[in-house]
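input
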Amino acid sequence: MATANVSRHEKQNNSTTFEQFLCSSDLSGEIHGQLIFISALNAFLSITAFLGNTWVLIALRKESSLHTPSKVLLGNLATTDLCVGLISEPLYVTLLVTISQEHWNICLYLLDPVIVSSTILCGVSLLTLTAISVDRLLALLLRLNYRQVVTLKRINLVVATCWVVSIVSSSMRFYSDPTISLGYAGIVVPLCLLTSIFCYTKIFVTLRHHHHQVQNQVQQLNQTNQLNIGRYRKAVFTALWLQFTLVACYLPQVIPVALFIHSEPSSSLALAWSYIFTLVFLNSSLNPIIYSWKIEEVRQAVKDTIRQLLCC
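output
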């Protein structure tokens, strides 16, 4: 029984042990060169995330054809990506530089801001994408009543809730028992992904059903056109691309987390943590490309903004 208690206590303190290992001379000097490369890569990604999402926010503000609540959700996602490029990545670059230069005291001070800021912003991104999937489903099911139900006030409340939930979950890191934070993430993240899967599955099943209805009963065509199926499909596929990109960038985190819980800290684990953290930040640079690629109005507005800047 005593051995089991010690083992449980060691697992609960693995996070602290790993962080102390990152900021200590136990870290192999052989990976310092790779840390410099990762820091340079993140510096570049920080610039692209900041510039790309700034252009997207300007474009969304100018664009008037998109429904305002939908613009708010897309704007919130772009804002979190902008903050990643403006806050989290510069902090992360500084952390990697301090590790490579062996400034251990500064490293310890930087760890909490890096992890907390990235946890908050990544959490908001995940929750916002889940809200977008629900919004797209409501647009299909409610049809003409959509604008009466999905109002700007309610969407602003949803956005505020996303930020509060993310801030609360990241603050759990400072509790004495780290399993609280891991357990919270273990509930929220799968719940968000399952909600998005359900919404998009329901959307495609409903669209397929509508397609058969239109083929069999031509008189239903006018009612279906009120939803503007073609435009709606584009919005759904844009949201899906954003969702797939987030999952592709975030899913590899499971590997170091599993190793982190069950393995002793090592230089190879620290290097894996560095690369996968970079992959998470890459998502913030990819999203503006998806906006410009899949949303014609945003693409044109971005082109106009860049053209105006070049003229100035």
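quick obs: Residues 1-13, 217-224 have pLDDT under 50 and may be disordered.
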